[in-house]
Amino acid sequence: MIETAGLSRAQLRRLLRERRRALAPQRQRQAARRLYRQLAQHPLFRRCRHVALYLPNDGEIDPGLLLDAAQRRGKATYLPVLNAWPATRMVFQRIHPGEALHLNRFRIREPRPNRARQRKVWTLDLLLMPLVGFDCEGGRLGMGGGFYDRSLAYRTRHKYCRKPALLGLAHECQKVDRLALASWDVPLEATVTDKAWYAADRKMMRRGQLHRDPCGACE
């Protein structure tokens, strides 16, 4: 575990990115298999009908086995897609097995934008998120672009709108002692690594509870 005292966010981000990029391909594949075993039979994953994931980049842990499992089980699966305009907006678009992908401006694979297949984030059941660093209290350090924070900003305005369940995915080496949350940061329910679960909302994790939207619309 890395101690964050005396490190700026930029310094911490650089250190953690170096750590995950240093993992050998064999270690990455092993971590992906272990991540799958951690999550595949958990009630949160088994019960969800609409789940968003990501495709790995820059040494991120690979949720590809979970994506394959979700599609085999008949779940609707989604990937993040960056808008051309406004350039700071990200949406979630349904993806089908074998679909052709292209590289976005960050050289990350994503489907071609298709509004008819996009879904509002608050109507998803489960969102599996990449991260650079995490702590045990739901803190998440991202790449610095703020795409996920902007997509989830409605949760700070509508306190009772708790969908989707938010799980960060990471290598164990990305764990830090504590992350100071900014006002725009949206905490995770838990982070899942290749070795363990770190649940901030322990009651929800034990029950495998999927949040329901009591107000019907979180806009």
TrEMBL record:
Coiled-coil residues are none
Q: Which residues bind ATP?
A: 9-13, 140-148
**Recorded catalytic activity of this chain's protein:** (6S)-5-formyl-5,6,7,8-tetrahydrofolate + ATP = (6R)-5,10-methenyltetrahydrofolate + ADP + phosphate
> Hey, which family's this protein in?
Belongs to the 5-formyltetrahydrofolate cyclo-ligase family.
Q: Which cofactor does it need?
A: Mg(2+)
Q: Which UniProt keywords apply?
A: ATP-binding, Ligase, Magnesium, Metal-binding, Nucleotide-binding
Q: Which domain of life is it from?
A: Bacteria
InterPro entries xrefs: FTHF_cligase, FTHF_cligase-like_sf, NagB/RpiA_transferase-like
Q: Which PANTHER family match?
A: 5-FORMYLTETRAHYDROFOLATE CYCLO-LIGASE (PTHR23407:SF1), ATPASE INHIBITOR/5-FORMYLTETRAHYDROFOLATE CYCLO-LIGASE (PTHR23407)
GO terms for biological process? Answer: folic acid-containing compound biosynthetic process; tetrahydrofolate interconversion
Q: What positions does the entry give for substrate binding?
A: 55, 60
Q: Give yes or no: UniProt keyword Magnesium.
A: yes
* This enzyme's EC code(s): 6.3.3.2
A single MF term (Gene Ontology) = ATP binding
Name this polypeptide is given: 5-formyltetrahydrofolate cyclo-ligase
What is the annotated signal peptide range for this record?
none
